[in-house]
């Protein structure tokens, strides 16, 4: 009985803490508001929107996928339904033609006609098999492109190492972003020399592919930069493991190499900010000046003496460069260098609002504009 009461007390404490997140500490531009869309979503990572308005949410740990339901459309979900568990770090999700696609480390699976079976999900089907099984940077952000192909990153299985031709990691798919034609089984390289990309999007006008990339660790507080990158031609090499940012050579693998031989970032970011989700805004709710604004979720550092990141940034894109990079939401990181939230990924909603996941606070925020 005492054990039951202790567990109940902990559960109530968790609920209380979720309800009492200090949203008032978050700073947004004038007219913007942020609220809680869903709570108690374990390790909320990438999201996908179903045809009937269901928000699906992946996680790294504890390996679950949730369905979040706002049945009355008031901007706050009433139900959080666990639809899968025990999966291999199912961080990334995509939704297409009624089916939910879930990226595990070693494969991509599909739940057919999922919104008709939230209470009793069907057995998933493997649609992309035999991906590398290494956990280190193995979690994935996935999505279908305007071309109908499924885009899948394969992170490097280490902090920094040679994978091409290595006896330990001899798989040419490491350090890259691939795309798969699920109808034909065809596979192509989108980008090479990519350390750990956990966010990408397509520019709404040009259709060009953009992605974030996380720089290596253990070169000090201020090196190397994290990156925002632009693919102007499929198959371009972005420098890893030889270079980071525009010109920072790796002390081991960059010897004898030239930065000019590789595709330079569109923007060098502060070291260790860990950019994850990126999104070009296309909705109608925000002011017209925000149309095509690039939003970047800086998840935040873990190995820096003074933390960096823990915020949402915004920028404008001109051709292949990122300009006017500045905070859009700040306040998760406090003056005493503690943080109570870590933004991960964006999901645009039909009403023009923007959802934002947080895998530290286990919540999903809703960002709106009040005219």
Notes on the structure:
With 371 residues, the chain is mainly beta. It has a single domain (26-369), classed as 6 Propeller (Neuraminidase). Helix content is 5%, strand content 36%. It is built from 1 helix and 27 strands. It has one helix spanning 2-19; strands spanning 32-38, 47-49, 55-57, 65-69, 79-84, 92-96, 99-103, 108-111, 125-128, 143-144, 150-154, 176-180, 187-192, 200-202, 209-213, 225-231, 236-237, 243-244, 248-249, 267-271, 275-280, 294-298, 311-318, 321-329, 343-348, 354-358, 363-369. The strands form 7 sheets. A 5-stranded mixed β-sheet has the order 10-11-12-13-17, with no helix packed on it. The longest helix is centred in the N-terminal third of the chain and has 18 residues, at 2-19. The chain is globular, with a radius of gyration of 20 Å. The relative contact order is 0.14.
How do the helices and strands line up, and which of them pair or pack?
Layout: H1 2-19, E1 32-38, E2 47-49, E3 55-57, E4 65-69, E5 79-84, E6 92-96, E7 99-103, E8 108-111, E9 125-128, E10 143-144, E11 150-154, E12 176-180, E13 187-192, E14 200-202, E15 209-213, E16 225-231, E17 236-237, E18 243-244, E19 248-249, E20 267-271, E21 275-280, E22 294-298, E23 311-318, E24 321-329, E25 343-348, E26 354-358, E27 363-369
Parallel strand pairs: 13-17
Antiparallel strand pairs: 1-27, 2-3, 3-4, 4-5, 6-7, 7-8, 8-9, 10-11, 11-12, 12-13, 14-15, 15-16, 16-20, 18-19, 21-22, 22-23, 23-24, 25-26, 26-27
Average pLDDT rating: 94
Number of helical regions: 1
Q: Major beta sheet, specifics?
A: 5 strands, mixed
Radius of gyration: 20 Å
**Which of globular, elongated, flat, extended, rod-shaped describes the shape?**
globular
Structural class: mainly beta
Our count of domains comes out at 1
Overall CATH class: Mainly Beta
CATH hierarchy: architecture:
6 Propeller
Strand percentage: 35-45%
Tell me the total number of β-strands. 27
Strand line-up in the sheet with most strands: 10-11-12-13-17
Q: Give the low-pLDDT segments.
A: 1-19
CATH topology: Neuraminidase
Specify the CATH homologous superfamily: TolB, C-terminal domain
Helix content: under 10%
Between the first and last Cα atoms, what is the distance in angstroms?
53 Å
């Amino acid at each position: 009985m005492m054990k039951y009461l202790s567990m109940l007390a902990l559960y109530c404490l968790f609920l209380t803490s979720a309800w009492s997140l200090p949203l008032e500490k978050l700073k947004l531009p004038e007219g913007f508001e942020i609220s809680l869309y869903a709570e108690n979503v374990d390790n909320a990572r990438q999201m996908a929107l179903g045809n009937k308005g269901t928000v699906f949410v992946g996680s790294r740990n504890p390996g679950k996928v949730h369905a979040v339901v706002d049945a009355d459309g008031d901007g706050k979900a009433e139900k959080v339904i666990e639809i899968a568990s025990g999966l291999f770090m199912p961080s990334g999700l995509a939704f297409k033609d009624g089916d939910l696609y879930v990226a595990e480390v070693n494969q991509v699976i599909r739940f057919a006609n999922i919104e008709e079976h939230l209470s009793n999900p069907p057995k998933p089907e493997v649609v992309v098999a035999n991906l590398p099984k290494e956990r280190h940077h193995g979690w994935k952000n996935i999505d279908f492109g305007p071309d109908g192909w499924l885009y899948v990153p394969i992170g490097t299985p280490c902090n920094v190492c040679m994978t091409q031709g290595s006896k330990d990691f001899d798989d040419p798919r490491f350090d890259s972003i691939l795309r798969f034609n699920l109808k034909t089984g065809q596979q192509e390289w989108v980008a090479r020399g990519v350390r750990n990309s956990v966010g990408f999007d397509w520019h709404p006008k040009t259709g060009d592919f953009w992605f974030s990339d996380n720089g290596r660790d253990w070169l000090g507080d201020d090196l190397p930069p994290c990156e925002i990158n632009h693919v102007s031609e499929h198959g371009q090499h972005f420098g890893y493991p030889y270079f980071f940012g525009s010109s920072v050579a790796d002390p081991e693998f960059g010897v004898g190499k030239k930065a000019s031989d590789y595709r330079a970032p569109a923007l060098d970011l502060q070291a260790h900010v860990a950019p994850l989700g990126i999104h070009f805004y296309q909705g109608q709710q925000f002011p017209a000046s925000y149309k095509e604004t690039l939003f970047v979720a800086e998840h935040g550092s873990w190995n820096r003496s003074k933390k960096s990141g823990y915020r949402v940034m915004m920028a404008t894109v001109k051709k292949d460069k990122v300009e006017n990079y500045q905070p859009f939401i700040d306040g998760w990181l406090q003056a005493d260098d503690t943080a109570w939230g870590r933004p991960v990924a964006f999901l645009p909603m039909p009403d023009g609002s923007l959802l934002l996941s947080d895998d530290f606070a286990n919540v999903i925020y809703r960002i709106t504009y009040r005219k």
